[in-house]
Amino acid sequence: LLLPVSNLCGKCRPCDIDLLQPSLNFLYWSLHQPTPCSQQRAVAVLLSNVSLLELLQKVLECTWERSPPSEAAPLSPEDALLCSGWLLVASLVLYQHRYNTEVHQTLSLDLTKVLKAVIFRNKKPILLLVSIMQFLRAGLRQNFSSSLLVIVGQNTAQGAVEPQPSPPQEAALHPLTTQQVLSLLVSLQNLWVHIQLQKDLLLSQAVVACLETLVEYLYVKNKDVALHVASQPWHRFLLFALLSGGQKSFLQPEVLRLMTLFLRYQSSNIISQKEISQILQEAAEANLAELPQATSRALHLFLCQV
């Protein structure tokens, strides 16, 4: 089915939502088959379909063309299609790199617009925001050097009339700027506040994952900037705001993942020996066999980091 469905998508327009929505979801599902052989075959089929990639380019561009709703509204069919498009492209970026698959058609994306979509949000539905963040994570993990992507419009927000020499720090973070990194960090922190109000598990997982990937990206590019980002005092406030919710236990997957992140980058002003001892005490008293899988995995990574 993969070949005819991908060919069918290539013949559609972004307005053919009823047909495209289930089709893109099927392609996404096909990419995430459990065996590497199936994944490799799926990504090769999809990346060889030029018409499909051109269609995906048009779908993603619709993200910037849509006006934000006047108030929070349920996910519309148009937004649902955008979610499917962003998630599919994010997966294509990851699997293309993993299997070094030949690319027959590139996708052009304005990184400034992608960052603004997360930083300013403009009342975007949570699922669309999470989907764009998933793509951003894929780009960060590949250092924005995927052969599937062409990053355009870099630094247009600075409004420079002519190119100026970049300071060493800015050159190291390319194609991001320090201002964009700090704005993204503040946006992720603000989303934590939203999580406290809405108790949105999906958004919580996405924010933690994006923060992890951002710091990992920065550590490769510029260790000083990475350590500066990881040691922001506001992290401690947000972390304990999370613990002040209904479930005060440290044994929450997102809390454990954040603690692991701060340990990894030696942010002693964020997590102290006292918090480490509390987590170890809770783990010792817990019935490990009854912990959810996500909690067990997060606790395992935390203990390995300790």
From TrEMBL:
This is MEI1 protein. InterPro entries: Immune_Signaling-Apoptosis_Reg. One of its GO terms (biological process) is meiosis I.
